[in-house]
Design goal:
This protein is of the alpha/beta class. About 35% of the residues lie in helices and about 15% in strands. Helix 3 packs across helix 5, helix 3 packs parallel to helix 12 and helix 11 runs parallel beside helix 12. Bound molecules: phosphoenolpyruvate and manganese (II) ion. Phosphoenolpyruvate (PEP) binds next to loops.
Length: about 450
Amino acid sequence: MSKALPTMFAAGWAPSSWLQRVALQQPQYEDAAELAQATAQLAGLPPLVTSWEVLALKQALAEAQEGRRFLLQGGDCAESFADCTSPVISNRLKVLLQMSLVLVHGLKKPVLRVGRFAGQYAKPRSADTETRDGVTLPSFRGDVVNSPEFTIAARRPDPQRLIQAHAHSALTMNFVRALIDGGFADLHHPEYWDLAWVEHSPLAAEYRQMVAAIGDSLRFMETLAGPIAGFSKVDFFTSHEALLLHYEQALTRQVPRHPGWFNLSTHFPWIGMRTAALDGAHVEYFRGIRNPVAVKVGPSVTPDQLLPLIDALNPDDEPGRLTLIHRMGCAKIAAALPPLLQAVKREGRRVLWVADPMHGNTESTSNGYKTRRFDNIRGELDQAFDIHAAADTRLGGVHLELTGEDVTECMGGARDLSESDLDRAYKSMVDPRLNYEQSLELAMLIVRKSAG
Ligand code: PEP
Ligand code: MN
């Protein structure tokens, strides 16, 4: 495509043009009229974010591509309507703020904070149906589609849930925005983010030291320069896997001040590994929106597949537009990542490389839990930094599944959780998350790695 035709005017594109392609991972709604009624209602509701914010994030991601910021993207594997509560939302915000404090201090550069929240309600599944005791029902596809209980009624894809997902996303956004605007994220008050564990964690001393050091530098700078506004408020952006295209289409809007189409359900949608086919519906939908977008890249992707995907999603090599989130697995990253880095570098394409050390390291235990070993998560991240350094490319961020709750879903970490600990507090509906302590440990690891 020529330079004169930027992405915002993608040829032959419309918010509904994805319908002409194969759309994987979509539910089978029983009643087309009911679906049409719900999507029409959704299309009339206010958006969740604005084009101004979306473009500001794109600019910040462009700076991350140049090494001037580091992206911290994290949150639940799947949000649930039931967890749309004050403690769950504020604890998740606390752990992300604490991690970003560690990163800012250690990396000496601004951290771009993006939550996996306010819309992370749709999940890809390995099978369309689930069978228990001879009964087969549709798989649970996330709260925006159906409900996890194993009954006919609960598993029926319900279009009303599209409206409920929008409402729960708005409630989440509203609370996060109000907390931040009200001063919760003020760097002068990191004690606002304390979680009960900080008292007794093996990592507490190191964290406290960082908080004290940051407090000292803040006071020093403000003694010289007076209060610095940027420190009392931070930016927070939202992201989710834009999987359920009926939902995304209904929130795809035009606005008076910026040309083109925006997905205003989130600032930063991504395409999951299972739906990233070049000729598939998701790539078709994504190529026409002006948001910054990301794609998950798994170990089977070859340079011959990746380069055309980059062409489709970022034909003009626009800064900040495209993030590639590699999720290879600890055992595969050493072989799978270098050819991709080399190909993208050789072609001179502008992308932000981000590591997701979670999704290539999922396993099942003998007692039936889906888990991840902290050593494998850490091992993949460790290698990711080294592989980028060897390729002379830049790892510009991390993508993590985490929670501010004291869960026991991933094994290992500072408290060395074992298989038998998983029983104690396993709450995830889909993938296992880092608990707050494991999350902070990973942030400290990133800092140590970056220091060389
Ligand atoms: C996820 O991020 O929850 C997910 C399903 O990831 P992936 O597409 O990388 O498997
Ligand atoms: Mn997941």
